[in-house]
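Long-time lurker, first post. I've been practising inverse folding by hand and with some scripts of my own, and I keep getting stuck on stretches where the structure tokens seem ambiguous. Below is the full token string for one chain I'm working on. Before anyone asks, I'm not after the true native sequence, just a reasonable design that respects the backbone. If someone could post their per-position residues I'd love to compare against what I wrote down in my notebook.
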């Protein structure tokens, strides 16, 4: 029996692990590598209508408990981005989740239409990027009204299941998550990076990041991600959840499942344990399941 196999929104997956948006580059070879190393679901970088170069470097710095990044949504644009899915499909049938970013419901809907005719399996709405606040202001998911408008508009045109990626930088996370569910989201992805935050080089007296601020990812996020997922389940939300934030080991992944996640995203962990991290975590999850005589990841008991 393969204890790691699971199903998400009707799609069979070889493992519960997800490559989140923005972790690797946009090329099909990166997707192929992550899939071969054990990721059950591949997410593209967040694609915009036109290509974006992102922010000037340095855009990443390691801090105590994690990393700060201000990539700035660098991507080749929707047209080129979806072509990489076609190339990836020549090597793998692993489910693909296309992430998109825009500034209003109409622009999101136009991007969604361009994904309809691809070989993607899911559509993820990035409503939560914190490292472009200098350009676009607070995350879109800070407003129930905005979340409702975007998801409703996208659902009216999309032929794919819609996943809403939410930000922890809000005053009432469960209200935002509930608004996303009521608007028709098929699943939730939580959480994006926290912040933004600042790191300072005391020798130069300057911020380390060129953009000054960046979103915090890594182990420091895990307790917050676990708590927000738990609160959503406690509030009665039944939508499938992709949980992420500080996942480095199999133990971390099992905690995420116990908090109420259905799948587990591994992002910053790739920098800590290399691209082989997916296989390593899969083995650690399998060892736990075997030790506890649990048939599958879907049978892990939740704390709610």
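-- Answer (accepted) --
I ran through it position by position. Result:
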């Amino acid at each position: 029996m393969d204890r790691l196999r699971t199903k998400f929104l009707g799609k069979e997956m070889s493992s519960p692990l997800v490559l989140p948006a923005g972790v690797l580059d946009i090329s099909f070879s990166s997707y192929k590598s992550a899939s071969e190393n054990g990721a059950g679901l591949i997410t593209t970088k967040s694609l915009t209508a036109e290509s974006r170069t992102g922010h000037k470097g340095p855009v990443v710095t390691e801090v105590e408990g994690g990393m700060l990044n201000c990539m700035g949504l660098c991507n080749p644009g929707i047209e080129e981005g979806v072509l990489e899915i076609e190339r990836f499909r020549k090597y793998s049938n692993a489910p693909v989740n296309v992430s998109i970013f825009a500034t209003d419901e109409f622009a999101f809907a136009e991007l969604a239409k361009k994904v309809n005719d691809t070989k993607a399996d899911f559509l993820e709405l990035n409503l939560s990027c914190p490292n472009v606040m200098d350009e676009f202001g607070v995350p879109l998911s800070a407003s129930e009204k905005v979340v409702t408008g975007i998801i409703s508009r996208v659902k009216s045109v999309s032929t794919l299941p819609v996943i809403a990626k939410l930000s922890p930088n809000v005053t009432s996370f469960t209200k935002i998550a509930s608004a996303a569910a009521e608007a028709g989201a098929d699943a939730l992805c939580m959480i994006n990076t926290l912040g933004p935050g600042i790191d300072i080089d005391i020798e130069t007296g300057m911020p380390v990041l060129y953009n000054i601020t960046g979103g915090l990812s890594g182990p420091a996020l895990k307790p917050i991600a676990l708590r927000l997922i738990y609160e959503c389940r406690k509030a009665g939300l039944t939508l499938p959840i992709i949980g992420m934030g500080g996942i480095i080991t199999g133990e971390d992944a099992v905690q995420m499942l116990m908090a109420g996640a259905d799948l587990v995203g591994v992002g910053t962990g790739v920098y800590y344990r290399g691209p082989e991290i997916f296989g390593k975590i899969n083995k650690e999850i399998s060892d736990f399941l075997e030790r506890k005589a649990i048939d599958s990841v879907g049978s892990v008991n939740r704390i709610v």
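A couple of notes from the structure itself: The chain is about 35% helix and 20% strand. The first strand starts at residue 6 and ends at 8. Happy to go over any region you disagree with.
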